[in-house]
Amino acid sequence: MDRRRMLALCGLCVSGSAGCLSRASLQSESGTDESTDGGTDKTPDRTDSTPVSGVVVEDPVVRKAVTYESMMGSGGVLAVEGRQYVVASVRPPDGLSGSDFTFRTDADSWNPGLSDTAGGINRSVAGREGSPVGQNFGGSDRSFLAFEVPSPLSASNPRIRFEPDDSEWSLPTRMADRLEAPSPRFELVSLGVPESVSQGETLSVSLTARNVSETDGRFLAAVYWPTHVIADDDESRVVERDVAAGEETTASVEIDTSYTAFEDGPVRLTIRGHVAARRDVEVRDAATPA
């Protein structure tokens, strides 16, 4: 029995019964760091320093937009105009609070947290896995910090600070430069969505977006399709493309509609990320999966 079928049956049962002190640069363990602007950093900054506190902040990234995954729901894309994201891994994950950390420059500071993500607790942001600091749900030896800061940000001495013992981890120079770089901007050129679909058929969606900025960049958008039969498993498909300034990109997405609805009627497809849109699709022949 596959996961969706099992969750669908469980959902029916439930409804029937009643929901360091280190001044060095941050490490990057992965060895590669995919840039928001389509490049790849292949020379990670490392430090052998051991924080006095025992807390280690490492594997940082600066992104103009991020993908994320959630424990409940679909996850997707976060791309807020005028904002960008600083994300890093933290270990060990236990005994910490989000309020223990700030992202600082010589002029300002920000607390960790992300705006308007879909689903429940995030289990991955920008590829940094675990759970948000202070919300450890077990099974991982690390958690992550995610800061939402202005974009672009001309910053002197950008760093992550562990407030209890004043430990600080400075961002490498290339990431400080990325904070200051402009973000790409995209417009939706076209969106092709069928007016109706029979439940169980594949829903084919196509979209075209244009980079309307003077900056080459990575286009990110999530296509959401509800699965009301499975409360914690909405469909999402992430579209990711490198798009040069002034150029267009087209993507096609195939969506499984087997678990869409209990009864016939309109269902809303939603796109979030660098572009946003909504379309209502009439679902026919809806039935509870066997």
- pLDDT average, as an integer? 83
Strand content: 35-45%
What sort of overall outline do the alpha carbons produce when their principal axes are compared?
Answer: flat
Give the neighbour order of strands across the main sheet.
Answer: 15-21-20-17-18
Largest sheet: 5 strands, mixed
The assigned structural class equals mainly beta
How many distinct helices? 2
The SSE string, one letter per element, is HEEEEEEEEEEEEEHEEEEEEEE
What is the CA-based Rg, rounded?
Answer: 21 Å
Low-confidence stretches: 1-25, 27-50
**Number of strand segments:** 21
**Helix content bin:** under 10%
Span between termini: 11 Å
Number of domains: 2
Give an account of the 3D structure.
This protein has 2 helices and 21 strands. It is mainly beta and 290 residues long. Helix content is 8%, strand content 42%. The protein has 2 domains: 20-180, no CATH class; 184-284, Immunoglobulins (Immunoglobulin-like). The model is unreliable at 1-25 and 27-50 (pLDDT under 50). The strands form 6 sheets. It has a 5-stranded mixed β-sheet, with no helix packed on it. A 4-stranded antiparallel β-sheet has the order 5-4-9-10, with no helix packed on it. A 4-stranded antiparallel β-sheet has the order 8-7-12-13, with no helix packed on it. The protein is flat, with a radius of gyration of 21 Å. The relative contact order is 0.17. Residues 24-53 are annotated as: Disordered. This is CARDB protein. Residues 39-48 have a biased composition (Basic and acidic residues).
